[in-house]
Amino acid sequence: MRKSRPNCFAGFGSLVWLLVVGLPLYVMLVATFQTRPDYAANGPLSFPEHFTLDNYIDDLNSGFAQYFLNTVIVTVCVVGIVLLLVPPLAYTIVRSRGRATTTVFRLFLLGLAIPSQAVIVPMFFVISEAGLYDNLIGVILPTAAFAMPVCALILTGVMRDITPDLYEAMTMDGASPRRVFFQLVLPLSRSGISTIVVFSALQAWNGFLFPLVLTQSAETKVITLGLYDFQTEHGVNTPGLLAAVVLSMLPILIVYLFARRALVQGLMGVGGK
Amino acid sequence: MTPTAALSPDGETVKKDGSSAIGAGRPGFLWAAPAAVFFGLFALVPLVMVAVLSFASWDGLSDPEFAGLDNWRKLLDDPVMIKSLWLSVLLTVLGVAVQTPLSILLGVWAAGHQRNRGVLSAIYFVPMLLSVAAVSVLWRAVLDPNMGVPAQATWLFGDGNLFGKQATAIGVLVFVSTWQFTPLHTLIYQGAARAVPQVLYQAAQIDGAGTVRQFFHITLPQLRNAIITSMILMVVGGLTTFDTVLILTQGGPGSDTTISAYYMYQKAFKSFDYGGASAIALLLVLVSTVISLIVVRLSGYDKMRSTMEGL
Amino acid sequence: MKQRARFSRTVVVGGAALALVLSLSGCGGDSDAAGGDTLRVLVYGDAANKVEKEIVATFNKTSKVKAVLDTIPGADYQAKLQTIINSKQAPDVFFNWGGGSIKPFVDAGLLLPLDPFIAEAPDLKAKFLPSVFNSAVVDGTSYGVPMRGTQPVLLFSNGKVLERAGVEPPKTWDDLLAAVKALKADGVTPIALGGGDRWPTLMWFEYLYDRIAGPELFQKALDGDRDAWASPDSRKALSKIRELVDAGAFGTNYDSVKFTDQGSPTLLATGRAGFELMGSWEYSTQQDAHPEFAKSDLGYSAFPSVEDGKGDRANVVGNTNNFYSVLKKTKHPRAAAEFLKLMYSDRFVKAQLAIGNLPTTTNTEGFLDTAASPEFAKFQYDMVKAAPAFQLSWDQAYPQSAATAMYQSLQQFFNGSMDEDAFIKAMQALPTS
């Protein structure tokens, strides 16, 4: 077989990349099980002498449990809002022939081009006037809004692939749009729906700028901000800081371990098919 | 929501492809209304406010005052602003230039079904599980000149002054983005590579084409759509990089990594020049709109057709 | 097929309901907390918060209106403050640096004049050192009460490292240069600098300008005389900075190190650097992170004098103090006044001294012996008392809108990517008030 030579090259390349990806992950994991003096004395590349879980325990006691909960609340609500609003929207865009719908779709396409930073100044005043400053709702609403354009795009793409014959068959039977939606469109768009769940959940989980500007107290802090504050205040406590980083990825890691296929497929969907 | 009351008013009876359809059974605008209102309220209204504010002078303490084109004129004269635009472009171009070949190679490689590839792909995916903030914090710690890896690997990092020089600071930003986002793009290419019809390769093999030739003559052309999507994601992501800059460099040294999105944040929340910040924001929107329009053109998203049609 | 449809429907409807319920519950909860009988106190988040927490607890024991302490981590404090101060979420009482830092708020009519309270309870003014109290007087009206300690900038050192290199804390600029040479030869970074934060770099400019040109030059520049920056004294100060940086005093990677994440204090504490020029809070920082070092090896001295300089070698640079100011729209002005009265209580003074801060009340002198480090407290107290001039940090003196550009130029001149002329031009371009 002629394949062996290029495979060698690919094998080498993939090992290099493994090193690039793996080394920082190794440093991160190893550091979190070391005491602070050990880490300072031995450096990031060495293996722990005295294994300890204190870094994790300290983090959880210093508010990370609360930040976690906040992030979970934000994520669940954002996904909830997106699931509630986007499927009917996409359904309308695909099936309706009204001019208003086309305009709405164009607006959502425009929305793709609005980076969230661009609206942060007025967003602060809108949220503040609404009395939602330093309140998780104030983070949830704009985060959901900014996840919508991409979700709408992904889902309309999927819904367009439902063959017209199926719609016709149902409407012939006199089915209402509601029935068509629940019995035909939703079941056939499951892949798309799981993609928008993954996408909007990641948006919410990653959210940084909205929480940074729209919240301030420990009760409303999300985990990304918790990490940022930890870094700006006690950055030199590297083991503690990195333990917080590990904690922040645990939930997604668990999802990844148990639903790897769904997550990966969902992410592939972000890039279209 | 009362969808049943929302029958489409303009029931067209004949479609282009000849099959008949009945107006009844199509959803009306009311189905889209909640999403439209919600999105309008939290994205479009603030956008309009940005546009208005870009013509105002405002520090958030007193009332905004109309300032005409002042903010815009100042922007054009502001060396840091001009520099920030260049930096944004530079960072974006470097990001695309590094990530695209890397993720195509990794994606095509991972598309194979060998067992070891599956295992390695699973590890490659891990950075994707971390938030941007977490990744930035991680790298800031790993690259700390005194407590991080540079202190132990002076042969590679010298004095470890990675954040104190423009070239290395930019290098760090590009590298960290690559580290974080390559898994996503790899996935996109992996999916696309798997969708390439095997017949094409079989035919090529009969013609005696080697792996390299196959890659350039079959795989790459077939990945065209994936390349477009992935590049767009990179470009928009690159232009709006914020968390990474805030956590890793704070735009420094000096203003050497102050890209436009970060400069806007500084103007708004450090210098309290909300008007000037809004002008930059509007500029960002315009740039991304142009890019978006290009995507829409290239990908045919705006035409209401099924993506299946191309096949 | 049918069952799947039901599944999807459940997901959609359930998600919606959940979101709704959560939003309702969240909304209701917060609006209650914001109104009510609370006095919201906003402070800069750092190691000194311990005392603020204690004072709030003391206050709440007797007061019907309960004080709630909010902290915002240092780096973002000023930004957050100005964003929320004119919004519904504004605190009742907030931490600031007096002078230039509250001027825009006063101009916008947001602050409550404290003079009526002082008329009722003269102690609110009389119990503080006048020079310090006056830095929160804007246009003849008092807007702030000192609430932490005075924070002169000192040259801190690691005694062990100095001893090993045979170096004494420098009295003159030449001493400093000699010390740099000796420490460098000994293989340590002579001076730790958190250049990543930028304001630690600023301290070197402040002291050198003061020693060489006296406090007048900066005051002139601040008053709008742009030529001050181009004067021979200004150029001399800049060349001294160049000299020091080029001598390798700060090593080469100072711009990658920060003070706020405790990078530079750790260098000093672990013996990897000999000196650090820092505000007096270095002491509480070290006490917190490296208690052993703070107790035994942490040294401190005044900034060295510079030959032929016009500035008095007893002049001090730093934060005169931090202040509490009250917002005009507070619902509880009485409670706020009561709260402010705690700032000269014996208990407050003792608590501040215990963490290394130096309150500027008239009763401070009597408690100096109870300080965490009595010598350190006395040293600072004598230094501040004897200082002919106390230069407020440049970034606090200039309007906020100048800060970013100022930091950028300072950093670029310091690391050599901007030359003297360009730096002078950049400083001349800063907006003055």
UniProtKB/TrEMBL annotation, chain A:
It is found in: Cell membrane. The keyword Metal-binding does not apply. The chain crosses the membrane at residues 12-33, 64-86, 107-127, 139-159, 180-205, 240-259. Residues 68-259 form the ABC transmembrane type-1 domain. It is a multi-pass membrane protein. SUPFAM superfamilies: MetI-like. Keywords: Cell membrane, Membrane, Transmembrane, Transmembrane helix, Transport. It comes from the Bacteria. PROSITE patterns: ABC_TM1 (PS50928). Belongs to the binding-protein-dependent transport system permease family. PANTHER family: ABC TRANSPORTER PERMEASE PROTEIN MG189-RELATED, ABC TRANSPORTER PERMEASE PROTEIN MG189-RELATED-RELATED. This is ABC transporter, permease protein 2 (Cluster 1, maltose/g3p/polyamine/iron). It comes from Streptomyces globisporus.
From TrEMBL, chain B:
Residues 85-295 form the ABC transmembrane type-1 domain. It holds the Pfam family BPD_transp_1. Coiled coil: none annotated. It is found in: Cell membrane. The chain crosses the membrane at residues 29-56, 85-110, 122-142, 162-181, 226-248, 274-296. Its main location: membrane. Keywords: Cell membrane, Membrane, Transmembrane, Transmembrane helix, Transport. It is a multi-pass membrane protein. Belongs to the binding-protein-dependent transport system permease family. This is ABC transporter, permease protein 1 (Cluster 1, maltose/g3p/polyamine/iron).
